[in-house]
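Query structure, 155 tokens:
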């Protein structure tokens, strides 16, 4: 595999276009780079969206707070939501710092918060207005589903 470290959306876009490549976009890393460069995160996402095949989703804070729990950083979810999910058919994972601890509780919290945001941002029925919705999850994550969770250890 190939790794390239760019922070500007234009140079990332140009690389993808010239090589026919797609990318994994880490939302918190993008937010940190935009904070350093003084760039609007929503515009950054909008420009790169056609080349995204996979997302790592987490919140971010400042210029070095990466992998934060959803809703605990500075990302404006209403501003970025449609640029993440509108018409998106690729894959994604929550990437929360230390989310694997407690048998994955941090990841489950992220999934629950993203599901709640998706319900909040969904278009109002019959109006065609509102924001794009995140890809559907098979079931709502949470403590009540621990027994049925195939990712949870059986101990």
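Result returned for the query:
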């Amino acid at each position: 595999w190939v790794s390239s470290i760019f922070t500007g959306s234009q140079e990332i876009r140009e690389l993808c276009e010239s090589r026919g490549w797609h990318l994994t976009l880490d939302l918190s890393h993008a937010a940190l780079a935009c904070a350093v460069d003084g760039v609007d995160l929503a515009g950054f996402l909008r420009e790169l969206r056609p080349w995204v095949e996979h997302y790592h989703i987490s919140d971010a804070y400042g210029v070095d707070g990466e992998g934060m729990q959803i809703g605990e950083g500075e990302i404006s979810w209403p501003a970025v939501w449609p640029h993440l999910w509108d018409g998106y058919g690729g894959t994604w994972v929550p990437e929360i710092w230390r989310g694997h601890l407690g048998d994955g509780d941090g990841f489950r919290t992220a999934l629950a918060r993203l599901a709640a945001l998706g319900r909040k941002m969904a278009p109002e029925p019959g109006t065609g207005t509102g924001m794009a919705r995140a890809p559907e999850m098979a079931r709502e994550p949470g403590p009540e589903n621990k027994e049925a969770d195939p990712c949870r250890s059986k101990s």
